[in-house]
Design goal:
It is built from eight helices and ten strands. The chain is α+β, with helices and mostly antiparallel strands and 235 residues long. The chain has a single domain, classed as Alpha-Beta Plaits (2-Layer Sandwich), CATH 3.30.70. An eight-stranded antiparallel barrel has the order 1-3-2-10-7-9-8-4. Strands 5-6 form a two-stranded antiparallel ribbon. The two termini are 18 Å apart.
């Protein structure tokens, strides 16, 4: 299993134009990668006019076949001509789900959520959640294994506050290394802010932070809004 995080930085003020351009590609134009799409969001904090997407691929070969196969389709040329001038930078990172049960509730040995087949109520991400957050912890070398150990030692894989809104915890394996990314989803920003306060007061989380502080280079929280384009927001 391979998770791709793809980030586009757009020209100033181009976010709405990016969403508008999606109608050009047609309903099935990006089907090979949309069958692996977890979600697409626009950044509401940090750098402006950024688009962030997460995809779940079987492996690197699946990623290469699905993504590279799009570029030779003549019917997508009008879409590429509309979208590419809006983009000033592109970045992809490959991620791996956390090895602890409870931290990746939708991608683990007994759960492998994909948007193409849908999912039963309660068994996958819910579209009612429109506010997302991405917490990126960057560690010095060796910090990721230490992070998994500390999360397990303090029971955060079963901690109720840690579990609220949790979509998944991942580590980077290509791109910027030594990172752990935590994704959460909430109905609105107020719920996310309330949860953040509760998490900071959670004894298990505080103990984890104390252990990991010497290995932590940076901690960045990015607020994300779900795409207004329905087929870019399956989660």
């Amino acid at each position: 299993m391979l998770i791709e995080q793809r980030c586009y930085t757009l020209r100033l003020g181009a976010t709405q134009a990016f969403w508008d351009a999606q109608r050009i590609r047609g309903e099935d134009g990006l089907a090979p990668i949309q069958q692996r799409l977890i979600g697409t969001w626009s950044a509401e904090s940090g750098a402006t006019d950024q688009i962030v997407s997460l995809y779940r691929y079987d492996d690197f070969a699946d990623w290469e076949t699905r993504l590279m196969g799009l570029y030779g389709k003549p019917e997508l040329l009008p879409y590429f001509k509309a979208v590419r001038p809006l983009i000033v930078a592109q970045k992809s990172s490959f991620l791996r789900p956390a090895p602890l049960d409870g931290l990746t509730p939708y991608w683990r040995k007994d759960a492998n959520w994909l948007p193409a087949g849908g999912f039963p109520v309660g068994a996958g991400p819910q579209s009612r959640d429109r506010h997302f957050e991405e917490l990126t912890l960057t560690f010095s070398a060796g910090g990721v294994p230490a992070c998994w150990k500390a999360l397990g030692d303090h029971g955060l894989n079963i901690d109720a506050t840690m579990q609220e809104g949790l979509r998944g915890v991942f580590s980077s394996i290509a791109g910027e290394l030594n990172q752990v990314l935590i994704y959460r989803a909430f109905p609105d920003a107020a719920t996310a802010q309330r949860h953040r306060r509760e998490l900071c007061g959670d004894a298990a989380w505080r103990a984890f932070v104390e252990v990991m502080a010497p290995l932590t280079v940076s901690s960045t929280l990015r607020q994300l809004a779900a795409s207004p384009v329905a087929d870019l927001s399956p989660s």
